Predict the structure.
Amino acid sequence: MKDEAKQRIHESFHAQSMMTTLGAQLSGIAPGEVIITAPVLPGSRQQQGYGHAGLTFSIGDSAAGYAALTTIPQDMEVLTAEMKINLLAPAGGDFLRATGRVIKPGRRLVVVAADVHSVTQDEEVLIAVLQGTMVPVMR
């Protein structure tokens, strides 16, 4: 993967104020795959102390979207057209890791998925799976 493609993703990610608010970081970029991590901060917890589903969804959606971005031309961006989430377990742990991947690239639609894990020093638990569609758009 070319450096300018990775740079485009870094610049776009750092322009997202939501990711900054959540304390999220880009942790990996490869063709068709992007990893985003985020701590479970006090401001992103639900009433029982677990990470809020909104945190899980946000980093999963972004990881999947950036994975799609790795497959399209440099002069294009992507927007989420639809995204489904299955929440499998509470978002506990030290941080969450979302691994987004492209299922089927395309010029008009890119089908994507993401797995979100809760991570502690000793274990990783799959807490959510997402599947959706990204639409390439001109910048």
